[in-house]
Amino acid sequence: DDLRAVVGMLIAAPRQGRLGVGWRSIRSRAAAHAEVATLTVGDVDAAFERLAGLAGDGVGARRAAELDALAASATAAEWDFLVRVILGELRTGALQGVVVDAIAAAADRSLAAVRRAAMLTGDLGETAVIALSGNASDLDAVALEVGRPVLPMLAGSAQTVLEALAATGPAVVEYKLDGARIQVHRRGEDVRVYTRGLADITHRVPEIVEVVRAMPVDDAILDGETLALDEDGGPRPFQDTMARFGSEAAAQIALRPWFFDVLRVDGRDLLDEPLTTRRDTLARVAGPWCVPGVVTDDDDIAVRFSEKALAAGHEGVVVKAAGSLYSAGRRGSGWIKVKPVITLDLAVLGIEWGSGRRAGMLSNLHLGARDDDGEFGAPGGFVMVGKTFKGLTDDLLRWQTTHFPELATGEVPGGIAVRPETVVEIAIDGVQRSQRYPGGVALRFARVRGYRPDKSPADTDTIATVRALLRG
């Protein structure tokens, strides 16, 4: 159990799952820390177990007591690390690769064997146990199993279709859907549906279960996406799709599955078959439920197909090397997503103090769009549309910490309100409807491209411009 716990902490994914602790709970902790390091992995794991199990009346007070006890038992450095584990603020993508390398080195096993086992188990902790406590053959014996989700293959990024095609050579070019990743396992009449994070959501998506149950196979593992469609067959906003994953009340929103890969069918594993073979098999199995795509090495055909995807309301395309094998959990040149980069010039309305490695520096930006029509106050004012600290370098964090206090006008929770005089360029993947902000929209995956000292607040984008980016 200690080994599983260590791996979970190193990648900020405690084996207990969600602990029910947010930044507000952490910030209010004022316990003095231990002077000497005595806290063990078992101690922390037991504390996480208790936190994850809290429920019922008085849960807030009991959670606070658990956090106080843990903070008091940890040194200041240990507590800083634990906070980042609890809040998921470690660079988990990079750390997962480091942990895979570490498992291979510690067990004296090949990196390829450890990576494959991690893919097939979907659990780095379990992989570590197998590699470090079993025989060499145990690691090699890990196999694809119907009913045990695997880590999904990920796509790298390119700015243009031509750039992606140059990297892949002959490729399958497919629609990049603005949906939610799903992995569907079928054995006989039993169908299970899993999310990108390998959570079982079968009970929430009966229409997907019925689609796969009707396919002409006895067993299969399918990879794809699901999204909600409007009356005309176009994609609804991403949040409508995600609503089905989180609430039974959203059952009236019908989901449509689109499959783009098959890993197993009728007892035959296809992981080590080239994409073109898997795609031909998928076409026979899933038929009309396959993601639209073309096989080509022609630049013009690929570009026209990308334009078709955008015209249909989708995000862009994914360019996949025709001979690529299924390599889960890694971003490489086998699959490359291409979608337009949307940028907005916004005003900074406030900024929050950072935590973890950003502690002591002003970090999380409150972003505002210009309100030319005075819908939310005086014409020419600003309305908040999102927050972000993504994309900030250490140099920018230091600059913000000296710059924004000079513009302070008051306080916001965890930070300061500032005069809206600083313009920042923000890249986003899109916008979505939101009741959190008064303008009714929120930015999706916002990240800082850089500050624009050459622009004034009058040059910022308006709330009308932001709303125009809504799809559906």
Outline type: globular
Measured as a percent range, the helix fraction is 25-40%
Radius of gyration equals 24 Å
What is the count of helical runs? Answer: 16
Domains, number: 4
**Mean of residue pLDDT values:** 89
- Distance from N terminus to C terminus (CA atoms, Å) equals 47 Å
Q: What is the C-level CATH assignment of the largest domain?
A: Alpha Beta
Count of strand segments: 19
Q: Could you list some keywords that capture this structure?
A:
472 residues; alpha+beta; 4 domains; seven-stranded antiparallel beta sheet; five-stranded mixed beta sheet; 16 helices
Quick summary of this structure?
The protein is α+β, with helices and mostly antiparallel strands and 472 residues long.
Protein topology:
Elements lengths: L1 H9 L12 H5 L13 H13 L5 H15 L2 H12 L4 H16 L3 H11 L2 H10 L2 H6 L12 E5 L2 H8 L2 E6 L3 E8 L2 E6 L10 H8 L5 E10 L9 H9 L8 E11 L2 E2 L5 H12 L6 E4 L2 H13 L4 E6 L9 E8 L3 E12 L8 E10 L9 E8 L5 H10 L4 E5 L2 E4 L4 E6 L1 E4 L7 E4 L2 E5 L11 H5 L5
Helix pairs in contact: 1-8, 3-4, 6-7, 6-8, 7-8
Verbal overview:
The protein has 472 residues and is α+β, with helices and mostly antiparallel strands. It folds into four domains: 89 residues, no CATH class; 49 residues; 185 residues, DNA ligase/mRNA capping enzyme (D-amino Acid Aminotransferase, Chain A, domain 1, 2-Layer Sandwich); 126 residues, OB fold (Dihydrolipoamide Acetyltransferase, E2P). It has 16 helices and 19 strands. Strands 11, 12, 13, 14, 15, 16 and 19 form a seven-stranded antiparallel β-sheet that branches. Strands 1-10-9-2-8 form a five-stranded mixed β-sheet, with helices on one face. The protein has a five-stranded antiparallel β-sheet with strand order 4-3-5-6-7. Helix 7 packs across helix 8. The longest helix is centred in the N-terminal third of the chain and has 16 residues. The relative contact order is 0.10. The model has no long low-confidence stretch (mean pLDDT 89).
